[in-house]
Predict the structure.
Amino acid sequence: MDNVADRPLAGIVLRLLSGILFSGMMVCVKAVSAEVPLGQAVFFRSAFALLPIVAFMAWRREFPAALATRRPAGHLMRSGLGAAAMFASFAAVARLPVAEATLLAQLAPVVMAVGGVVLLGERFSRHRAAALALVLAGVAVLVVPELGDGQERGRILGYALGVLAAVLTAGALVTVRRISRTETPASIAFYFVLATTLAGLATLPLGWTAVSGSTLVLLVLAGLFGGAAHICMTLALRYAEVSRLAPFEYVALIWPVLADLLIFGLPLSSGFLLALPLVLGGAGLAALEGRRVRRPLRQ
């Protein structure tokens, strides 16, 4: 197995690139959200993500051999949770600034740490407790100022969907932790994207819309960006330790902030600025704790 820490600079560069690509995907999804039904957006994002993922697998000579699986039920659970998370995430970004939707996605590592305690019998350490406290405080300062304004119901629903997406993502990641003992990263990624493509396609009877050429380009780019971001993140985690990559979560949020300011003309709320260090601090603690807990298992 590759040494995860043998190319830290490459890991950092790939993590930064994955943040740019993920932000590009979210910008594309938000830009078409007023015109394109949710399921249609999920379909295009997933179907076109297959292209870079399959190309990457072929380049590594893993296709189709890497698709062999001994855990079909595990793939089904991981893909189902991931598909539900994608629907919730896209619904959230349609109602929120990209930066706020992206920040709420950072709750996933903390929920995953708690899920490891509940589902996998891991120890509930002080680091995990502190991480949970920080993210709960962050969500509170983001959401509470909006509760008194009856005109912000759509925004509050967006926050709820963003938190739901993070919880579902954490569930998917806990499942990945279970099945990755026997399954390759390539097979996990492929079956997830295939499942979300089918889930999006299943919404066709609910009514899709004819799209313009520019909207179609954005939908295709959302898929290509999403698939490429997944590849970059996978490689980043192979080349560098989680603890080394954690600080670059702050850098990854620069791009959604710039997108809100420069593309969508949305100002940064005071709640977002207060929540930012709390949520990212909690996510960083959870990531570091997860690395510390898993390290003895490799010895």
In short: The radius of gyration is 19 Å.
